[in-house]
Each structure stands twice: as structure tokens, then as C-alpha cells.
Write a structure and sequence with these properties.
Blueprint: E1 4-7, E2 12-15, E3 23-28, H1 39-57, E4 61-68, H2 73-81, H3 86-103, E5 111-114, H4 119-131, E6 135-138, E7 141-144, E8 168-169, E9 181-186, E10 195-197, E11 200-204, H5 206-218, E12 222-228, H6 232-247, E13 252-258, E14 261-263, E15 266-267, H7 278-283, H8 288-297, E16 304-306, H9 308-330, H10 339-357, H11 362-381, H12 389-404, H13 418-433, H14 437-449, E17 452-457, E18 460-465
Parallel strand pairs: 3-4, 3-12, 4-5, 8-9, 12-13, 14-16
Antiparallel strand pairs: 1-2, 6-7, 7-9, 9-11, 10-11, 14-15, 17-18
Helix pairs in contact: 2-3, 4-5, 5-6, 8-9, 10-11, 10-12, 13-14
Bound molecules: zinc ion.
Length: about 475
């Protein structure tokens, strides 16, 4: 079966085929850098990362662009309140966002585009839209007229035929299924930042930013456009209307959306006290890999219910994976090959790939991995796992990790590499031989502090990470 995605536009699962050979032109809506991003945002960003990695694993080449929204209603209000320039205010949160992405091992898109660095191009696009008769002016602001655009509502599958022509909205986000003409260019207000451009002084609205930067870097028709489900209306609907009005071409062929993240089955909100940034979660002692695993483990088309119980079991799953890898690396197996186990490894890898081809069904892919690990562990315990079986087992686990990327522990201050752990274990063994038990115990405690658990067996010392 080929790689396929659920396309919000057609409401169907479709085979994926880019326009040009194996090149995928992809645009994903990026962060608005007015605050620390929360775990719901990172659910969507982790989905982009998995999508990137799986497309590449399937032999595609990526041209992926993500915007950084650094001018927008909320940012302007917050910067004004703190008496900071827009650039000073957003720099803090852009850096925080990039640091958080790195912690979660989210790959960098080929191009990150800041809105404030593309103002002239946006003004130019708005001028073109005006020339084509798609805009009108009110109080110095320019609005996009949606009434003549018959396809409006095609992505969100809303029927806007009864909409009020001429109803306008100034804010960038509005969540009712209420179609309004939206601001492309906002007139300067007291104390607010603005740019001088050929279409007059002002600043761009949020929607035009994505259309302009997507077309600028990726051309008139994208292969994939992705975002969170909350962006389908109005943001993506507006992006389509502006882009099609500009170019006369379809804007994006596959629209992929990541569902909401709930916390304890409720919508995350500051007033409910269930609002978490990535930093909040990591501050409770969880590793970035556990968070990454949890966010990746639920397929993007399903809502993800975040709980600390779930995060604990994600941590346990990561440990099981690491311990299996450690067994492969450290244990001695009898020579030869167990053919039945070789066949199991091949079947598990096929199931893993087929699950990800199926609209990135990460839950099924992980089920294939754990089923295999369970059988392989049982075979190891019973002496049925042979030396040559390690090759296929390692290849499968490595393939898993090129997508999920959780095996390598994040090194914290003073945390030890495998080699350093082995060296300390050797020193402890020496101390025991010399009957220096105080020193041996001290080394064991020191390792425990670093999250390394020792187990003395008849074959020597086995160790694992907590
Ligand atoms: Zn966007």
C-alpha cells in the first residue's frame, strides 16, 4: 500500500503523490511568539516532525517552510504593556520556542520565515489583490471581500451561502463559524508599531502572512499544508481565499491537521489550572524523551488526552525500549540464527512501516515494536535468541528510532555516557575484589544518583538507566 493521508479538503484518505518527482513542498503554520508555547502547541509541532521524518524515510526530499509570527494583536498588546519594542519582546519567546524544539528533538524546517522580514512582499500581494478587486478600505484598513469567492468554506466544510456580505472583523482569530471579511492590512493605531509601504502605513493581518511566505518560498501550489485543527477556520480558509485570488491556482493539495490536546479530558486553560508549557512539565522531572514519546504515540487525527499518568507510562515505555537496546548491545547470545525470530523481525518491521504509511498511525506502529520486543525478550530469557538475530533486531530498533527518536537519553548536568558508566562499574568491581566494600558502595550510590541501576548477576554486573 502506498503512503496515504487523510486530507481535510476532500475528507478522504488519499494516496500521496507530490507534483514533482520525489520533492515535497510543505508549509506548516508556526508559532506566534508572544509567550512560551504549551504542550498542545507541541503536539502539533511533534506531528510536523514525525511527518518530516517519515516522508524522508520513504525517499522524499523536503522543502519545508514554517513561519514565525512576530507581529500580531496579542504580541503588540503585550509588548506595549512591557514598554518593549516588538523585536525585543518576540526575541525572548522565539529563542524559548527554538530551545524547546531542540529539547523535543524537533527537526528544523528547511526555512523558517519571520513575518516582520516579509512586510514588503505582503504589501505587494495586498496591492495585487486590490488591483484584482478583492479588497476594500474602511477606516484606513484594507479588508478581503469573501462574498465573491465561491469556494469559501470548502476546507472547513461550512456552508456560508447565507453570510452577511460586508460584515467585517478586525481581530485575527475568531472561532465562531461566522464568515467575515477579514483585515489584510491594519491601519496604525496610537502607539502601535507600523511599517511605511506603497499601500500606506500599517501592519499585516495574520492570514496574509502565511499565504505570502508560502508562495514566496514554495511556489503557487503546495503539496502539503499542515496545522492544528483550530486553524482550519478561519485561518486556513482565509489563506486559501487570498492565495487563489492572487494566483488563480489551487493553493495546497493535501491539508493535514493535528487534533486537539486535552488535559484530563478538559480543554487546557489557565483558569482551570491545567495549562502546561513544556517547561512546566520538564520542571516536574520528566525527560524530554518521555514527553516526545507521549506526544508522538497518539495518531494526529485523534484527540490526545494528556495526563501525568500517561506521561509516567510514556517514561516506562521509553525505558523498556532502552533496556531492550541495552540487552542487544551487552548480552552474549548463543551462536547461529533462530529463523522464526528472523521472520518475526521482518514481519514487525513491515507492520511498522505499513502503519506509518496509513496516515501516520503511530499507535499501530508502536504496537508492532512492543509486540516484537516482548517476543524477543522472552526468547532471550529462554536462550532461544541467537547471535545472528541481533542484526535484524538492531536494524528494526534503529529504524524505529530514526522516526521516534527517544533512545538516546538527554544528557543533563553530570549525566554519564555508556562508556563512563562502564568505567565506574569496572572500578567498583576492582574495589570489591580488593575487599574495599565502602568504596564499592560509594560507587554504586554515585551511579544511582545518575539514574543508573546495577544488578549483580552470576554472569557479572548488569545495568540499566532509571
Ligand atoms: Zn498559517
Amino acid at each position: 500500500m502506498p503512503l496515504r493521508f487523510y486530507n481535510t479538503l476532500s475528507q478522504q484518505v488519499e494516496d500521496f503523490k507530490p507534483q514533482e518527482g520525489n520533492l515535497v513542498r510543505m508549509y506548516t503554520c508556526g508559532p506566534t511568539v508572544y509567550d512560551y508555547a504549551h504542550i498542545g502547541n507541541f503536539r502539533t509541532f511533534t506531528f510536523y516532525d514525525l511527518l518530516r521524518r517519515w516522508l524522508r524515510a520513504r525517499g522524499y526530499r523536503l522543502e519545508h517552510v514554517m513561519n514565525i509570527t512576530d507581529v500580531e494583536d496579542k504580541i503588540i498588546r503585550a509588548a506595549l504593556a512591557q514598554h518593549k519594542s516588538l523585536a525585543d519582546y518576540t526575541a525572548t519567546y522565539e529563542k524559548a520556542f527554538l530551545d524547546d524544539c531542540e529539547k523535543l528533538r524537533l527537526e528544523h524546517p528547511e526555512q523558517m520565515a519571520r513575518a516582520t522580514e516579509h512586510i514588503d512582499e505582503m504589501a505587494d500581494a495586498i496591492r495585487k489583490l486590490s488591483e484584482k478587486g478583492h479588497t476594500y478600505t474602511s477606516d484606513g484598513s484594507l479588508y478581503f471581500r469573501i462574498a465573491p469567492f465561491p469556494e469559501y468554506g470548502k476546507l472547513s466544510h461550512n456552508d456560508f451561502s447565507g453570510m452577511r456580505a460586508g460584515a467585517r472583523v478586525d481581530v485575527d482569530t475568531y472561532d465562531k463559524a461566522d464568515a467575515r471579511d477579514f483585515a489584510l492590512w491594519k491601519a496604525p493605531k496610537d502607539g502601535e508599531p507600523f511599517w511605511k509601504t506603497p499601500i500606506g502605513p500599517g501592519r499585516p493581518g495574520w492570514h496574509i502572512e502565511c499565504s505570502v511566505m508560502a508562495i514566496r518560498y514554495l511556489g503557487e501550489t503546495l503539496d502539503i499544508h499542515a496545522g492544528g485543527v483550530d486553524l482550519i477556520f478561519p485561518h486556513h480558509e482565509n489563506e486559501i481565499a487570498q492565495s487563489v485570488a492572487l494566483t488563480g491556482k489551487p493553493f495546497a493539495r493535501y491539508w493535514l491537521h493535528a487534533e486537539f490536546l486535552l488535559v484530563d479530558n478538559q480543554k487546557m486553560s489557565k483558569s482551570l489550572g491545567n495549562y502546561y508549557t513544556l517547561r512546566d512539565v520538564l520542571a516536574q522531572g520528566y525527560s524530554p524523551e518521555a514527553v516526545r514519546y507521549l506526544l508522538a504515540s497518539v495518531p494526529h487525527h485523534k484527540q490526545l488526552n494528556f495526563t501525568f499518568e500517561g506521561l509516567k507510562s510514556a517514561k516506562t515505555s521509553v525505558e523498556r525500549l532502552r533496556n531492550f537496546k541495552l540487552r542487544l548491545d551487552k548480552e552474549k547470545f548463543p551462536p547461529g540464527s533462530n529463523e522464526q525470530l528472523s521472520a518475526r523481525a521482518a514481519a514487525a518491521e513491515t507492520q511498522f512501516s505499513e502503519s506509518l504509511d496509513d496516515d501516520l498511525n503511530t499507535a499501530e506502529a508502536l504496537a508492532a515494536v512492543f509486540e516484537y520486543i516482548r517476543e524477543a525478550n522472552t526468547a532471550m530469557d529462554g536462550g532461544e535468541f541467537r547471535e545472528e538475530n541481533t542484526v535484524a533486531a538492531r536494524a528494526f530498533i534503529d529504524r524505529f528510532d530514526t522516526i521516534f527518536d527517544v533512545l538516546r537519553p538527554t544528557t543533563q548536568n553530570g549525566s554519564l555516557s555508556d562508556v563512563e558508566v562502564e568505567a565506574k562499574i569496572a572500578a567498583r568491581t576492582q574495589a570489591k575484589k580488593a575487599r574495599n566494600f565502602a568504596e564499592a558502595d560509594r560507587l554504586r550510590d554515585e551511579l544511582l544518583q545518575e539514574g543508573i541501576i546495577l544488578e549483580d548477576t552470576k554472569d557479572g554486573v548488569r545495568w540499566k538507566r532509571k
